[in-house]
Specification:
Layout: H1 2-18, H2 23-41, H3 46-80, H4 82-92, H5 97-116, H6 120-131, H7 136-145, H8 157-166, H9 170-180, H10 182-195, H11 205-225, H12 231-249, H13 258-283, H14 287-292, H15 295-306, H16 316-347, H17 349-357, H18 364-376, H19 379-397, H20 401-415, H21 420-431, H22 433-442, H23 454-492
Helix pairs in contact: 1-2, 1-17, 2-16, 3-8, 3-15, 3-16, 4-6, 4-13, 5-6, 5-7, 5-11, 5-12, 6-7, 6-21, 7-21, 7-23, 8-19, 9-11, 9-20, 10-11, 10-23, 11-12, 13-15, 16-19, 17-19, 18-19, 18-20, 18-23, 19-20, 20-23, 21-23, 22-23
Length: 494
Amino acid sequence: MIALLAATPILVAVLVLVLGRPATWAAAAALVTAAAAALLAFRTPAGVLAASGADYAPLLAEVLLILLFGMILARLLEATGAMALLSRWLQDASTSVPAGTALVVFGVVPFAESVTGFGIGITVGIPILRRLGHRPAPAALLGLLGLTAVPWGALGPGTAVAASLTGLGLDELGVATAWVNALPVAVAVVAVAVLCGARRDPRAAVPVFAAGAVLWAGVLGANILVGTPPAGVLGSLSVILVLLLSARLRGARLRGTRRTVLAAVPYLVLTCGLLAAQALAGLLDAVWLDVLASPPVWLLAACLVAVPAAPGPVDGPAVVARAARAWVPVGVATGLFMMLGWLMTATGMSAAIGAALAVLGNAPGPLLLALGGIVAGSNTGANAMFAGTVASLAESTGASVLGLVAVGNAAAAFANIATPPRVALAVQVGAGDEALGAKSAAGNDSAEGSEGAQPADAGAQRAELERAVVRVQRATVLCVLAATVPLAVLATLL
């Protein structure tokens, strides 16, 4: 009975989301339910809550700032044309469709996602995949499969939340997650190879397998040598550099212009600044260096140079204002989910759920977090809801807390590809003008006279888009299952 009461906030959140309500509503309802449950059966001294909250508050602020500055940077790079310019340059460097696809799926999409988060990677990568010759639905699926570095997306706030709620070190959790993330990467590699025609021509699989291996090894190596926050950036950069070098050796012309260099300046400031600050913080013990080495500082620095270095004109203040408005629902939902995770961990609710699930072994750990990744649509939200529970489950079964949380972190991150709103967005981006045409015509369904044929065309386009969403949704769920089931099996061995 106690375990069921402890699980009520999670059940409330899932119910609200399944009913189609916004994530903000779900997080708020769950937080209120958790507070009520804590007062009824999980009373905790105010001093304990205050001390725990004081330790957790800096992470909460850091995550919210990462999300804010990441969204601003993404909007600025889109508005200035920097993102499109770099995308076209990378597309021109591709020597074949499979090589170009591998470059986008395991290089461009993870890089954009690691820098900014929010699924921005698919909006960057899918248009390039379309220009490479992929049809809308396969391009959408390929773009979603590029989300294989989500534990390090937006410089890793989701992994940071999991580490904080479970008492693990951020870097040790990042390294452990990188090891087990080989399974999701392997699933993505096989799926991408099939979509590139490897069943007809096995040679098409070569650049895909090479890119997947470089991404996995690059992220793992960066976690070990540098740390977790920049690992996704460095791992995906290694894929881009290796494939560009391969293309150059095959005779491709890699000519950059002044505008191309300017477009890359914000990325260079973010990557080089963060690496240098973290190296300095590792050598010297000073509070100001720890602040300087935090990801929000260098995301802000990248935002500040994005407009002066813009390859095209942009109204910076207007873009920032729009990005800030778009951040509000994301930031509020994330903050509330993080507070929910903290409250459930601090009051013992997560421990009660973990103890009750222990009779089923360790397998529920990655399954719970994968469910959280699909429902919440965020690795941060999934870890906020379930990381504490998974840690308690490991303690109850005698398994490795680090191992089980890492397996769950990888499962939650990869499950993001099957989040319904993200799948719908990917298909719309892949359809491009067709999707816009369907929406535009849908607003004029009552048109008469010479426009009479337009509603029928729009209806056909909408129907085709809906069928494409269903196909891609089904494929992403199968990919998630193909990765999550082995991860659950791995969890039983811990």
